[in-house]
Amino acid sequence: MRLTQWTDYTLRVLMYCAATEGRAKPVTISEVAEGYGISRSHLMKIVQQLAAQGLLETTRGRGGGMRLMRPAASINVGEVVRATETDFHLVECFDPATDACRLSSHCRLKGVLSQAMDAYLAVLDGVTLAELVPPRALASGISAPEWAPVQAPGLNRQAPGLPVRSDGNR
To answer: Is pLDDT above 90 for 136?
Structure first.
């Protein structure tokens, strides 16, 4: 089970906005792009979608930017993932249109994987956006660049998400 880059960036934008919820100045796309090292044009598309879904309020022009339309505590991570992911078919047999497996009628793998997917989504359904942001960020409305781009220890910046062993290899 893996999230697409689109969903990853969507969650990052929402988390960044949640971390700056108390700030007077709205978050800008350029600020998020710089903070995470993500393409500004790619983020523009994500922000448009989030605004269309009613999660972000956007304001154009000088002094403009984006803010959460609802409190972070009312935004469910499972709902966001379902709205951004296009394919929950873990294997071919999940999609009747492409299922060519000769074992489908006798195989139990589909049921096990379906249970695993349900459990995965159930965990996400139990989490709000506010729970993904450090409490001190929400309480103080700190500038997101102080918090948002923080990287987990042991990860290589050139290859996000790939752990680096102590000998420097992946």
So the answer is: no
Strand partners, 27: 66
**Stated pTM of the model:** 0.73
pLDDT digits (tens, 9 = 90+) for 88-112: 766 666 667 777 777 767 778 777 8
Rounded to 5°, angle at Cα 74 from 60 and 2: 85
- Whose tokens are 């420097």? That residue is 168
CB atoms within 10 A of CB 11: 18
What's the CA gap between 79 and 86, in Å, rounded?
A: 13
b/e sequence 125-159, b meaning 16+ C-beta within 10 Å: eeebbbebbeeebbeeebebbebbeeeeeeeeeee
The span from the CA of 156 to the CA of 23, in Å, is 31
Rounded Cα distance, 77 and 126, in Å: 8
What one-letter code names the amino acid at 4?
Answer: T
Q: Is the dihedral of CA 76, 152, 39, 60 positive or negative?
A: positive
